[in-house]
Amino acid sequence: MQKVTNPVPRVRHPDWLFKRVMAMDDKFKQHRITETFKPIEKPSSGRDGIMDLEDFGSSPHSNGPSRPIVHKLTKSNKGKRSFRDGKTFEEQILEIELPEMKPDMLTDYHGFLAYQKIKWKRQRLERAQRKALGQTRARGPTGSLSGFIQKQSTNILTNFWQIIQIVETELPGEFRLWILIDKTLHSVRLSVPRIIYVNTRVEDADHESRRFPMQKVVRTLPRAHPCMHLYQFIMGESLYQKEAKNLSSFFSHPNVEGVYETQLPLLYRAIINLSCVCSVNNRAKRDTRHLLALFSSVHNRVFVFVVDAPGQKGQMPNMSKIYESVKAEIEKVPELPESNRRVNKTWNYFEQLQFDVEYVSNEKAAFKGFAKCLSKYQDERHGATAVILHSPRSKQKLLESMGILSDFPLISMPCLKSTKPFQALAWQSTAGRRMLSQFLTVGGWMTEQIALARYANVPVCNIEQDSPLFVTDVLLARRLQHHDMLLWWSPSSKPDLGGREDDENLSGMEELQDPNINVPGHYETVCLEMDMLSLAVNTLIQSNLINDLEGGTDSVLDTAHTLEEYNSGKVSNVITLSSGTASAQAFAIIKSMVKSWAVERAETQDHFADSLMNHFYRWLTNSNSRLYDPCMYAFIHGLMKKVFLQLVAEFKRLGSRVILGTFNKLTIVTSKTSVGNAYAYCSWIIRHIHSKALFMSIDLIPVYYWEQLLWMDCANYGGIICPNPQEVQEQDQPTLLTQVNPHIHMEWNIQHYLPLALHQEFMSTIGEFIDQIYKFSHQKQLATPKSLKNGTANGEDADTVAGNGGTKAERKNQEVIAYKKKLISQQMSRRLLKVFPEILAQKRDSAKDPQLAFMFAFPRQPGSHLDLTNPPLELVKSIAAVFGIDTSIEREVRVLRKNLLDLIEVREFSPESLFQNPCESFVLRGVICAYCSYCQDLDFCRDKHLLPKINKDTGAMVMGAWRCQECKEDYNREAIEESMIAIVERMVGQYQTQDLKCVKCRRVKGDYLGEWCECSGGFVTTLGRAEYLRKMRVFENIAEFYGLSFLKEAVAWTLST
């Protein structure tokens, strides 16, 4: 207690004393403030010697008491935050110079304070400069990734990283990356995760909730081990080492078949993935520049928020002048027809607008300013207000960013998503003009939406983006409820059947095949190509005539029945199909709805009724429809087939022949050799078909008049089109051919599967063949006597008048055939036999010349399914296949083919000499444009608008966007990929649940245990495995070619199982 140690150490202090002594000697003991500070004596003169806080630093010898000074802090204007007196931050910082010597605080406090004020002012300007540049703190260390990005952000986004070395560090999973950018060496920290794959025998349903996140993938295992349920684990190396025991117990589970890539070092994984040159991911390089504007129909003030990189302020053009110019341009456009014109009846646009522009560095600040303007507008109480959203972002995303939008009714306007990216400089002008152009179309669009809401009797803000499908669902639902029918409304592709969806929707797994008529040939007479519209509507309206034509008495198609007749059982209410049933009463209600649209269109010319009729077949086939019923679609599809076949038979009865026939396109060949006569004939035949009750509502629209057509299929054809058939028909000499030097229109998909060096030779050979025959026919027309050009007295075509030596048409046809044989056997043979030695020589030289080797390499296309190795052989096969379309010159083509095969040393009847179309086909039907609702069938293997363009100089494939042919807007690639995945899943289900049929009698197997048929024949699957794998490989090629990763993974999983 007295700071004296124990004089007798062998005698221990008592516990209470020992504890107190240890507490006093503890070096971590907390001291009292009185032990450090002591009070001073109070002055004797009251306040005379005390200085006020505001007088700190003033002279102590001043007379009288000092007056407190209060400073008022004012905020600078928003427009003057970055610049002061016209000077930038850099200029202001350079003007501030610190003294060389820093005064001592103890000896010269006033000098020290002045030095610190200068230093603080400089630091304040530096912080403001970093904030303007988007940096939240000072520049990081030189070796860290954050400091490097802040210093070289522009170079990182535009230049490649040349990796010099990847060095391991002491931290697990951390590496040092030495990279070279613009001749400057940098050190960057690199984190490499640990990736392992676990193949389990059973599926883990709760893998998302496990401690270690994992993802189910499909990969090819070593030595082709079966990939059952493969899961990918991605975790940090430190976590992997920390949880090694837990992971080891999990990997040793009996259901785990194997664990892969556990022995791959992280250094080698980094080398494999990064290579020696890399760049910043495209996600980091996406354009963050935006233009947000808030327009009002109440006042002419517009609030514009420009999201741009810091330091780019003041580059916005004069928006008022741009608005006036864009408004004047739109007013100068000639008025469209009344059916296509959107008249603005919602509000009147102001003649001039006042723009308040504010620059921000990120979206969050823009949304905050946007919400502030809306809140201010709401406080002003301008009356009933709705907000129209015109943005590529969804309504839900905008609501999350600006919660104040929930205080207003919201209307979503379709937005163009295929806009070109902004240029690097002066992008504000282009974006502002585009924004104002869209704003000037809002009035007409809103007027049409209000009219549609009144027509459909639905709230205007609840109209969905795909309005035809939405309105059809609503109108049909009301009719069904009016007839006391329950709705099968469902957001999925399976209708609501009271819990029996999976049992009674097996028909949804069957893919309905549209009829496809294709008759290859060489047609020298005029052919007419037509678009066929409203087949489904016509079938539905005229359905009661189908049974009469077939001699049936089924009352299912008759709609003249009441609800009591259906309920009492007097009339059958069930339509039995091969794999399901449909309701006859529902069919009758759908038919009555379509009939009402037809009446409205005929009586009032209502364009909404016309639009619903045009989109009816899309509603019927689209699984996104809320009232989609696959059985109803299958039933109507069968009726459409019957009407289509009746239409084809009617064309044949009228003297024409259908060479291409689908549900939406027809190509017929006539017997007329002149365009004038063919134009009059086709006009008559269309009127005659429309006069038939069964085809009354079908629209046949002529597209092209082909004077000559060499036809293989819808992707391989060539011929000569008449550009002005109506003018030719009005001439005095309609039998003359219209073009002396015609333009040959050719589309040959098989050409794209030949090497680039052979494209020109293939096209010139086929083009010369078509051109020579056309010129010969032209000369024969000119040599025809004038009396035969104008026809006979009764108006018949001169080519059909009979004579003693046969008809004129037969004699002319024989002359054309003789000329074609001579053309192939002499002119074309000599030309090709002269060209092919040169091709063979170039092919031999390609082994030494890389440029020639590239030109003779076979391109890889999405429809490729053959292993092509011999370019001259493929050229011979393609030319012979095109010439072989014309059966009248079959012998001459065989001789030409034999000579060319001998030239390239290939036997005539060898398997490799047989022609096989190198392109598979996959058509995705009913693809809808989200912007204009245009429906189109897309062939991803043969459609020239979807295939990439090949650069003939470099050979690189330039992948273009999938655009709508009506409005040129980009399709939704994700939605198309999901549709393909759904088709793949449906094909898998069809293959697994298909019927077995007998090899001999072709009957379907009726029992489960029978191994042989009653006729002693064996059973085989309806769809063979080879055909199933061929279709799957088509999807695999499409997924790999167009970069559809999810589709590729789904197909890979299907093929692996």
From TrEMBL:
SMART domains: DUF1744. Residues 318-720 form the DNA polymerase epsilon catalytic subunit A C-terminal domain. Pfam families: DUF1744, zf-DPOE, zf_DPOE_2. Residues 39-70, 787-807 are annotated as: Disordered. It catalyses: DNA(n) + a 2'-deoxyribonucleoside 5'-triphosphate = DNA(n+1) + diphosphate. It is an enzyme of class 2 (transferase). One of its GO terms (biological process) is mitotic cell cycle. GO terms for molecular function: 4 iron, 4 sulfur cluster binding; DNA binding; DNA-directed DNA polymerase activity; single-stranded DNA 3'-5' DNA exonuclease activity; zinc ion binding. GO terms for cellular component: epsilon DNA polymerase complex. It is found in: Nucleus. This is DNA polymerase epsilon catalytic subunit. DNA polymerase II participates in chromosomal DNA replication. Keywords: 4Fe-4S, DNA replication, DNA-binding, DNA-directed DNA polymerase, Iron, Iron-sulfur, Metal-binding, Nucleotidyltransferase, Nucleus, Transferase, Zinc, Zinc-finger. The keyword NAD does not apply. It comes from Modicella reniformis. Its EC number is 2.7.7.7. Belongs to the DNA polymerase type-B family. Its cofactor is [4Fe-4S] cluster. The keyword Mitochondrion does not apply.
